[in-house]
Amino acid sequence: MECIFCKIINEEIPSYTIYEDDKVKAFLDIEPDVNGHTLIIPKKHYTDISDLDNETLTHIFDVARYLKSLMETKLQIDGLTLVQNNGDVQEVKHFHLHLKPHYQEEQVLLPVEDVYEKLKES
Ligand code: AMP
Ligand code: ZN
Q1: Is the Cβ–Cβ distance between 18 and 26 less than 8 Å?
Q2: What per-residue confidence (pLDDT) applies to 122?
Q3: Residue range 2-12, pLDDT digits in tens
Q4: Is residue 112's pLDDT more than 70?
Q5: Helix (H) or strand (E) holding 79
Q6: Catalytic positions, please?
Q7: pLDDT of residue 1
Q8: Minimum-distance ligand to the CA of 88?
Q9: 38 lines ligand 1 (CB under 6 A)
Q10: 83 lines ligand 1 (CB under 6 A)
Q11: Cα(30) to centroid(ligand 1), Å
Q12: At residue 67, what are phi and psi to the nearest 5 degrees?
């Protein structure tokens, strides 16, 4: 099994996981464009939008909605862009939805572990 995201699901590779259930996992991108940059992936290996089933897609968007709310509370985000790459523009060939927060004020890019702590604190 060479897929890096399958290895994250199997916990062979560590991740800053901020949400998980039996169908999906959401973790912080290791090379964030912005504080809170997150990826949501299905636990089953799908390559891209061509083979992902609608039920899983709907669930991924339910989780995106939950994480938007979490980021509003914990990171004070002002907006959120969802991006999903396919084919030539997709680096990791395991379906993933990027969540990229926006902030009205310019932000210093924090270490991923600091963002993780903010999202996890109660
Ligand atoms: P894409 O171009 O849509 O395939 O983007 C793949 C994303 O996965 C990039 O933003 C990478 O920074 C991210 N990524 C790659 N390896 C890891 C990892 N081990 N943990 C978290 N994010 C990763
Ligand atoms: Zn995979």
Answers
A1: yes
A2: 81
A3: 999 999 999 99
A4: yes
A5: strand 79-83
A6: 96
A7: 65
A8: 1
A9: no
A10: no
A11: 6
A12: -70, -35
CA atoms within 13 A on the CB side of 25: 18
**Residues written for the chain:** 122
Residue nearest atom 19 of ligand 1, based on CA coordinates: 30
Tokens of 20: 């998980």
Q: Is the CB of 13 within 6 Å of ligand 1?
A: yes
Instruction: Give me the half-sphere count of Cα atoms (radius 13 Å) on the Cβ side of residue 101.
Output: 27
Q: Which protein residue has the closest C-alpha to ligand 1 atom 5? A: 91
Total-model pTM: 0.97
- The arithmetic mean of pLDDT across residues 7-30, rounded, is 98
Closest CA to 102 of 75, 77, 66, 72: 77
- Whole-number Cα distances in Å, 99 to 1, 2, 105: 26, 24, 18
CB of 91 closer than 6 angstroms to any ligand 1 atom:
yes
Please give the Cα distance from 71 to 97 (Å, whole number). Answer: 16
Closest atom, ligand 1, to C-alpha of 96? 3
Indicate if the pLDDT at residue 59 is higher than 90.
Answer: yes
